[in-house]
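Pilot study result, target chain (254 residues):
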Amino acid sequence: MSQPLPAGSLTGKTALVTGSSRGIGADTARYLAQAGADVVINFRNKAPRAEKLATELRELGVRVLVVGADLTDPDSVAAMFDEVARAFGSLDILVLNASGGMESGVAEDYALTLNRDAQVRTLETALPLLPQGARVVFVTSHQAHFIRTTATMPEYEPVALSKRAGEDALRERIPALAERGVEFVVVSGDMIEGTITATLLERANPGAIATRRESAGRLYNVSEFAAEVALAAIEPVPADNTRLVGDTGSFAGE
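Predicted structure:
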């Protein structure tokens, strides 16, 4: 896997990536650590995977903290940031990557609880640790980002709507973040090959990924998209606070 960030560019910085025991979150944490950042790996129920990743990243010479936390549980989130404060004192990069809503057996309002309420709570709980110059990155999909103007698959619509609600709620906080000197950027990507969401969509709607791939020309894989998320942590924030990754020709503008 190539390294999108210059070696040493994040030395002395600390980054937390939610949902980083696997997939896009894990690769994002890996890229940040390769650039020299000390990393907090957050997981909900994949402790062995998180610990395995931590062992790998420590071999790079960075400090790694592994913290289990359910982002829908306020006490759990508060305890996570208490651990971060004790270990590192501050947090320079917060990547809001964890999301969900297509899982079976969850409450009807779970998608909104996780993708909106928990995202806002995580940011607000982290705020005391974010110094001037810190960067917050929110990870979403084109299917969610453009949901107000472009319909998506029925199977994904509740998740898309909840993720857009989360994006909107976070964007409302941009002025307050700016007053503190904290930057905010949304990274939106097309369907990503190899993610849990893509697998669940394919199961519910066979052929969905191939159809989207044909329409877009190509789809990013997990490591390619994670590289874009990592770059969003250091590159200048676009004027509209939005970094679009992959084809957007099939989506109507907001």
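One observation from the pilot: The beta strands are 14-17, 38-43, 64-68, 93-96, 135-141, 183-189, 242-245. A full batch analysis is planned for the follow-on phase.
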